[in-house]
Amino acid sequence: EFRRVLFRSDDDAAQALYERALAEGCGGFVMGTLHVALPMGALREVIPLTPLHCMPSKAPGLVGAIDLRGVMLPVLDMRLTLCRQLNETGYPCVVIMVHEGRLLGLLADDVTGVFTMAPGSFKRMRVQGDEWPLLAGSLRRADDGSLVNLLSPQALAALPEMPMVEDPEPARSRQGDAVAEGVVQPLAQPMMLMQAGGQVDRKSTRLN
């Protein structure tokens, strides 16, 4: 059964999220087969997944915490929250979301870079009256026309008992200049070259 995680919202909040994504641009990433995005102002950075530490919490989808430069950052696996089948991944990463001065890590398989949305393409998802799901709606990328699901930072922060850490580096918050600086870039896949006699074999290595 698909479990919906919802919070109370209204048309003004949905419109504000759409206008924010349109003005700031979006950063896209992938979870299994699900392509999602956040407004650039809600993205801090993308880092490789480091060892997870236990974090006692009943929050749905919370898988632990990582050491982010001396700060324990909670990490959420939305594939668990949305009851999706988990895919094995060789290069997991963490997308760090910032909302109202607090940080939350989102486990991802890969990132798809910075993009702008096609004007007027946002279609809000509506369920059960005025409730609003984590996937606020869909939009089309202006660069390749692909369909992407827009995440709601407010809904993620409102997940039951979801811990978020106070931003230790508030000066690093990015707004409109984040698109130009390209803080969300596809992670390079590390390679190792091995030579045996006259042959060269290229093997992938996992980020730790």
Topology:
Elements: E1 6-8, H1 11-24, E2 26-31, E3 34-39, E4 43-48, E5 62-68, E6 71-76, H2 78-81, E7 93-99, E8 102-108, E9 110-115, E10 123-124, E11 131-133, E12 135-140, E13 147-151, H3 153-157, E14 165-166, H4 177-181, E15 191-196, E16 199-204
Parallel strand pairs: 3-13, 6-8
Antiparallel strand pairs: 1-11, 2-3, 2-9, 4-7, 5-6, 7-8, 8-14, 10-12, 12-13, 15-16
Largest sheet: 6 strands, mixed
Strand residues, percent: 35-45%
Any low-confidence stretches, pLDDT <50, length ≥5? 1-9, 175-182, 189-194, 200-208
Average of the residue pLDDT scores: 78
How are the strands of the biggest sheet laid out side by side? 9-2-3-13-12-10
Tally the helices: what do you get?
A: 4
Query: Strand tally, please?
Result: 16
Helix content: 10-25%
Give the helix/strand class: mainly beta
Q: Give the termini separation.
A: 34 Å
What oligomeric state is this?
single chain
What is the rounded Rg? 18 Å
What shape does the CA trace take? globular
Order of helices and strands: EHEEEEEHEEEEEEEHEHEE
Characterise the protein shown here.
By secondary structure, the chain is mostly beta strands. The N terminus and C terminus are likely disordered. The protein has four helices and 16 strands. A six-stranded mixed β-sheet has the order 9-2-3-13-12-10. Strands 4, 5, 6, 7, 8 and 14 form a six-stranded mixed β-sheet that branches. The radius of gyration is 18 Å and the shape is globular.
